[in-house]
């Protein structure tokens, strides 16, 4: 996929068809307005049993109250249902969203919001005996204005079909084994598929260690070994995260306590000879000693107690009022300023690996692979620089996301302008 094709995928909504497992999603101009349609593959629309499954599902939608469920109306011709008209809105698949805006994964609570909303809707579906069965990146939609998740056709309605291969062509990895081999499903089939989807969401940054056990259990070949429901799986994810967070906070608190105690004893008068403490070999960078900068909060987590003690002593000598909230806010703002400047420079170099003529002209598979590698590098650089600048993960993630979006749009514009100039 070259750069021109990438732009068409993003902007040419009226002519572009996006492939779903069972058909093509596109917009059609009717009476001056664009309407959403899903046109089914011929082998499905020609199937009488498939037609009946669509009609039954349309009737069942009236019982689903969750706002994340998309409504549709069957379009019937002489040979049966060939398409469905989907409710008004501008929607795209998760796969499209990640290809067009890879930085979205670094936005605040994006990951948890997507999973939480899917769990909520799926739980309501299960209460009515309905399973989605295929949470693949090109079968989960989002509303373009706010990335709010949406689901369309539910796989359990199509279980009466003789074969599931036509329904889930190309996305078999996201469907539970018992569905593909036996045409049987229950709520644990959705546990499997949703866990596969969560694993996909973290593909660029790497699945957090605390979630690996949860995903492993949820995707067990034997349904009996999985979680009984998507709610149980989601609770396990939250519990694992809370345990990890509690452990991290406890470790940080212990480290701070040890430093404070160490400083206390180091700063006490001592009448006995003490061993000389060699200064740290790597001094604070001169670029961090600009006017208005104070090392109290900028030394970072790697500074040893001797360095911290020296920083505090210098600060006490230069500020008779010592530390107050206003001063701490100034330190925080300076830390963010330094992080923003350094991360912008690093991210610009990293993003240049994909936003250049050579890479943009690669085939789609190679372009996606390179994009995922670049995203992992961006996340690693963010974490590294956040640690060195004493910023919280949340603050660093927010700033990094803004920078990546700005640089991405800038590089796209530059490439588009260059390509236009070459064609003239």
Average of pLDDT: 78
The value of Rg in angstroms is 27 Å
Largest sheet: number of strands, sense, barrel closure: 5 strands, antiparallel
Give unreliable regions as ranges: 1-15, 249-254, 259-271, 279-313, 319-323
H/I helix tally: 15
Order of helices and strands: HEEEHHEEEHHEEHHHHHHHHHH
Distance between the termini: 22 Å
Structural class by helix and strand composition: alpha+beta
Largest sheet, order of strands side by side? 1-2-3-5-4
Number of strands: 8
How would you describe this protein?
Helices cover 53% and strands 10% of the residues. Helix 14 runs antiparallel to helix 15 (393-423). A hairpin with a 2-residue loop joins strand 2 (23-30) and strand 3. The protein is α+β, with helices and mostly antiparallel strands. The chain has helices at 3-11, 42-45, 48-60, 94-100, 110-127, 177-182, 187-201, 209-218, 230-267, 295-298, 305-318, 325-351, 357-360, 364-388, 393-423, and strands spanning 18-20, 23-30, 33-40, 72-77, 80-86, 91-93, 141-143, 148-150.
């Amino acid at each position: 996929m070259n750069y021109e094709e990438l732009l068409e995928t993003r902007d040419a909504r009226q002519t572009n068809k996006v492939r779903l497992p069972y058909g093509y999603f596109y917009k059609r101009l009717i009476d001056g307005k664009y309407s959403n349609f899903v046109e089914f593959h011929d082998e499905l629309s020609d199937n009488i049993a498939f037609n009946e499954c669509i009609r039954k599902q349309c009737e069942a939608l009236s019982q689903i109250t969750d706002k994340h469920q998309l409504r549709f109306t069957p379009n019937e011709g002489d040979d049966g249902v060939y398409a469905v008209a989907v409710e008004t809105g501008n929607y795209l698949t998760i796969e499209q969203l990640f290809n067009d805006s890879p930085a979205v994964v670094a936005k605040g609570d994006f990951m948890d919001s997507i999973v939480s909303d899917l769990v909520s809707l799926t739980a309501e579906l299960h209460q009515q005996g309905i399973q989605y069965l295929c949470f693949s990146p090109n079968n989960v939609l989002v509303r373009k204005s706010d990335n709010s998740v949406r689901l369309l056709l539910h796989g359990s309605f199509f279980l009466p079909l003789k074969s599931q291969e036509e329904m889930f062509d190309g996305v078999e990895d996201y469907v539970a084994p018992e569905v593909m081999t036996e045409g049987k499903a229950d709520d644990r089939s959705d546990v499997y598929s949703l866990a596969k989807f969560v694993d996909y969401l973290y593909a660029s940054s790497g699945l957090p260690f605390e979630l690996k056990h949860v995903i492993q259990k949820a995707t067990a070949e034997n349904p009996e070994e999985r979680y009984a429901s998507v709610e149980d799986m989601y609770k396990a994810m939250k519990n694992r995260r809370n345990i990890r967070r509690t452990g991290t906070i406890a470790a940080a608190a212990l480290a701070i306590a040890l430093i404070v105690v160490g400083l206390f004893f180091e700063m006490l008068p001592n009448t006995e000879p003490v061993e000389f403490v060699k200064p740290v070999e790597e001094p604070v960078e001169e670029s961090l000693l600009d006017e208005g900068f104070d090392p109290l909060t900028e030394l970072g987590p790697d500074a040893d107690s001797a360095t911290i003690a020296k920083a505090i002593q210098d600060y006490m000598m230069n500020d008779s009022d010592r530390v107050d909230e206003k001063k701490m806010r100034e330190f925080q703002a300076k830390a963010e300023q330094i992080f923003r400047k350094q991360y912008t420079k690093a991210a610009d170099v990293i993003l240049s690996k994909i936003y250049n003529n050579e890479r943009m002209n690669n085939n789609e598979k190679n372009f996606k692979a390179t994009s995922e590698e670049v995203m992992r590098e961006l996340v690693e650089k963010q974490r590294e620089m956040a640690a060195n600048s004493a910023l919280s993960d949340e603050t660093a993630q927010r700033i990094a996301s803004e920078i990546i979006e700005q640089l991405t749009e800038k590089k796209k514009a530059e490439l588009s302008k260059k390509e236009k100039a070459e064609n003239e």
